[in-house]
């Protein structure tokens, strides 16, 4: 069944030329095409030359966006004893122990990030089937399994994101709001690119970067010149 394209989207697509855009130019166009009636996010869709079915070609890590995400991040913490109040004092929106695990199991999902202390992970493990598909399962690689709760909470509220390549080797990441300036979006996108390069899986062979597209939540995909993005120096923005 062919999905009907709205007149609005048809008109926006005419603004996107059949070529690769310089990074800053692409982000300026992203802002122009964010015409929905709600505050749209800026999204990156990056195809990598990896096959995540092999363990040495999987990508799962975090990025600290220098300009933040533009949205309030709700952090929940599963801990034990004094660590529960420590999490609350550090700014966690929700904190608890076994009772919080029970609430989540019953369907409570009022959070964007779930952090757990290592000693609670055996109990949190039973939430895997529920949290895994939503990308909310705590993991050491993602920085969400830690005893240093204050630092983790601060980082995630300031704009740290966890991301992973999907089963087809594509990374989908929200890297800001369309209302950000093109320059601020580029600073965040550059941080994302550098993080992906820095965490290249050991089993990745051949051409690592295949394609990069950026888009507003309800906007058309805009192809970015990958080489230009990787060669770009933040000093060039000034």
UniProtKB/TrEMBL annotation:
Part of the 50S ribosomal subunit. PANTHER family: 54S RIBOSOMAL PROTEIN L1, MITOCHONDRIAL, LARGE RIBOSOMAL SUBUNIT PROTEIN UL1M. Belongs to the universal ribosomal protein uL1 family. PROSITE patterns: RIBOSOMAL_L1. InterPro entries: Ribosom_uL1_bac-type, Ribosomal_uL1, Ribosomal_uL1-like, Ribosomal_uL1/biogenesis, Ribosomal_uL1_3-a/b-sand, Ribosomal_uL1_CS. This is Large ribosomal subunit protein uL1. Keywords: Repressor, Ribonucleoprotein, Ribosomal protein, RNA-binding, rRNA-binding, Translation regulation, tRNA-binding. Pfam families: Ribosomal_L1. Protein L1 is also a translational repressor protein, it controls the translation of the L11 operon by binding to its mRNA. Binds directly to 23S rRNA. The L1 stalk is quite mobile in the ribosome, and is involved in E site tRNA release. GO terms for cellular component: ribosome. HAMAP family: Ribosomal_uL1_B.
């Amino acid at each position: 069944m062919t999905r009907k394209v709205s007149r609005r989207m048809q008109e926006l697509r005419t603004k996107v030329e059949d070529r690769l855009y310089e990074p800053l130019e692409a982000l300026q166009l992203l802002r122009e095409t964010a015409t929905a009636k709600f505050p749209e996010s800026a999204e990156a869709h990056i195809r990598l030359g990896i096959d995540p079915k092999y363990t040495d070609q999987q990508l799962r890590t975090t990025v600290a966006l220098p300009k933040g995400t533009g949205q309030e991040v709700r952090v929940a913490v599963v801990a034990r004893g004094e660590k529960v109040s420590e999490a609350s004092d550090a700014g966690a929106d929700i904190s608890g122990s076994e009772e919080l695990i029970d609430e989540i199991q019953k369907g409570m999902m009022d959070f964007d990030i779930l952090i757990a202390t290592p000693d609670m992970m055996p109990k949190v493990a039973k939430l895997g089937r529920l949290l895994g598909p939503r990308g909310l399962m705590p993991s050491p690689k993602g920085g969400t399994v830690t005893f240093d709760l204050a630092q983790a909470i601060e980082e995630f509220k300031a704009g740290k994101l966890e991301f992973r390549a999907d089963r087809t080797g594509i990374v989908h990441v929200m890297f800001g709001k369309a209302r950000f300036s093109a320059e601020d979006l580029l600073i965040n996108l550059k941080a994302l690119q550098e993080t992906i390069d820095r965490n290249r899986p050991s089993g990745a062979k051949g051409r690592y970067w295949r394609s990069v597209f950026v888009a507003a939540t309800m906007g058309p995909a805009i192809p970015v010149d990958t080489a230009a993005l990787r060669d770009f120096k933040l000093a060039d923005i000034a």
